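Researcher: Re-running this chain for the archive, since the previous output was lost when a drive failed. Same request as before.
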Amino acid sequence: MGMERWKGMVAGIVVALCVSLAWHGGLWAAEKPEPASGVKAETAGTYRIGKGDVLEIHVWKEPVLSRETFVRMDGMISLPLLDDLQAAGRTPMEVKKDIQKRLSEFLETPEVTVILKEAKSQRFYVIGEVAKPGEYELTTDITVLQAFAMAGGFTEWADKDKVMILRREGGQEKRIPVSYKDIVKGKNPEQNVSILAGDTIVVP
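Model: Regenerated structure tokens:
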């Protein structure tokens, strides 16, 4: 009888421990909030932050240090404890690592997420015979075919063989002819060029 009572006590302790671990695990998950939507440092790739961009800096369990910030015209951002930090010309991942390194002087193993909320410095334009002409954010490397897709494709009146990309280089305007039909047929795949910030794609 004593042995059965002892076994019952052990079983009760095991159940209590399991419940406690499950509860604390759920609490930990609840305490670690998901950052707002946007382009995270891990997925922003080679995007270089520019003046005017809007970043969201999230420091886990440190709401006072977490904030949305604007990249000033001098390329800097301001954060509590760190004062000014260079952001322009760097990738979100580089900014994340710099913030974590500098915060480690004040916090133990800080967890930082950098989200590109608005890419105001990196934009291109599509005008003419497309479904959605206008201004588009350039948050990652894209080609002219991908730009057409972002603009909703061509209208029925579009001249797909006479597309022109207008680009500023060295203070002068450069014109890059593009034939959509040749690209998709594989005749001139080199015409499927990468889009740069400031490009204007003209679809006659």
